[in-house]
Structures are given as structure tokens and as C-alpha cells.
Amino acid sequence: MYLPRTLISHLYQHLMRTNHSQSPPVLILVSLEPDALCACRILTALFRRDYIPHKIQPVSGYNDLANAGEQLVQPMKIQSGGSGGIVVCLGVGGMVDVSTVLGLDNISDGEDPSGGVQVWLIDARRPWNLGNVFAGRPEDALQPVNGNARSRASDVVDGQIQSSYKPGQGGVIVYDDGDIDEEMASEREAFLSLLKMPNVEDDGEVLDDSDGASETAASVNGERRSKKRKSWSDRDVDDHEEEDEENYRPRQRRR
């Protein structure tokens, strides 16, 4: 799901209202790029001004991101003994399914796979991963997909967060800089159409087309052999015809 520019301060204001001395620190995963480092400097200045505890973890690629998810993010889950919290991804994670990379998609016994961990995704690289933008709700993984997948809740419509949305529910939230609403209408329709499609159960059978392939190969080889036999027989017939013409050629009279 994504946060439109008109509600850009919605999540941060909720964080300031609910922050207290026992709140878990906000985890910032920042890419080692100039834009991401500058954004991290601005964000940490806001956190210090508003007395919001935080910690920074630099990541240099998707391997570091996966390691950070295993060592830092997953222990924050309620199932792992944590209390949830907020993870901010700056300049990393926009092109992949960040829930899978961070290990927030493991479903067990109908529990919330995010474990109360909410990811704020801010990335300037394109293309967007459509699962981050138009999905990302933790309850989407728990509820079966039906014909009403287009709008399951009034606070999130077609992946767009509405003003009635209550933060703290976990999941992935993408900060929209304007291009999602303006330029990704066709991608949204296609993604939602895929969600409406029924799941095809895989019974583990492997389609083996070796028999058909062998029959086809045999027929082709047979045709080739028949063509070869036909060509040799035609050559033999031509040789016999030439011999018959020489044998039956009329004799010329001697002068």
C-alpha cells in the first residue's frame, strides 16, 4: 500500500503522538548513496528534535538488507518476543518484495506475518515492486482472495491509504512522490485483476511430454528415412532405364 502526497505527514504525526519512553527505537536501514544519506540526515534531525529514539543501520545491497532483516527486523516481531515497531528503508527495497527480503511474510497458525512491524519505504529508484505499492497489508496474506479484493477496507482503497487509516497495523507502506497516482493507473488495474483471479492448485504432477516428443521425432525420422529410400530407389530406376535404352538401341548399318 502507498501513502499519497496529500497525507505525507499522517504517519509521522501518529508516531509523535504515540511515542513514549518505553517505545522501541525506530530502525533506519539506509543505502550508501548520496540521496539516501542526505534523507537520513534530515530524518534523524527530526527524530532528535521530537525526542524519538532511533538507530541507523547502513546497507550496501540486498544481501546486507536480508542480513539486517534476519538480525535486526525479525527479533522485533511479536512472535519473536519483540514489541513490533517501525522500520524505515531509505534508498533500498523499492524494487524487490521487501516483506520477503526482511522475513515478514512467514505465515504460521493464522498469525500476523508482519508481527507488528511496519515498514516505511522511501526509495527513488524505479521500477516499483507492485506488491509493495498495491498490497503490503498483513491481513491480505491471511484472508483468501475473493471477488471483492479491489477494496477490502475503507481505510485502504486500491492500495491507497485513506485519511481514516490507523497506523501501527504492520505491513509495508510506500511513500508516493506523485508518480504512483499519476503514472501507474494501468499497473494498478493489472495487479488488482491478478488478485481477483482464482488460485490454481498445484497437485505436484509434472507434465511429461517426452512420449509426444519421441513420437514426433520418430515420425520425422521415418519421413526422412522414407525420403532417403525413395531417392535411392528413384536413382536405381533411372539407372535401369538408361541400361534398357542402351540395350534396345537399334543397330546402325555398316556402309
How does this structure look, described?
The chain is an alpha/beta fold. It has helices spanning 10-18, 34-49, 62-73, 98-102, 130-134, 179-183, 185-196, 210-247; strands at residues 2-3, 26-31, 54-59, 85-90, 117-122, 156-157, 160-161, 171-175. The strands form two sheets. The chain has a six-stranded parallel beta sheet with strand order 1-8-5-4-2-3, sandwiched between helices. Strands 6-7 form a two-stranded antiparallel ribbon. Strand 6 (156-157) and strand 7 form a beta hairpin. It is globular and about 65 Å long. Residues 141-152 and 227-233 have low confidence and may be disordered.
Taking strands numbered 1, 2, ... along the chain, how are they ordered across the largest sheet? 1-8-5-4-2-3
Q: What is the average per-residue confidence, as pLDDT, rounded to a whole number?
A: 77
User: What are the low-pLDDT stretches, counting only 5+ consecutive residues below 50?
Assistant: 141-152, 227-233
- Strand runs, count: 8
Percent helix among the residues? 40-55%
N-to-C CA distance: 111 Å
Q: Number of DSSP helices? A: 8
Q: Please, what is the oligomeric state?
A: single chain
Gross geometry: globular
Beta percentage is: 5-15%
Query: Can you summarize the main beta sheet?
Result: 6 strands, parallel
Note the run of SSEs as H and E: EHEHEHEHEHEEEHHH
Structural class: alpha/beta
Gyration radius, in Å: 34 Å
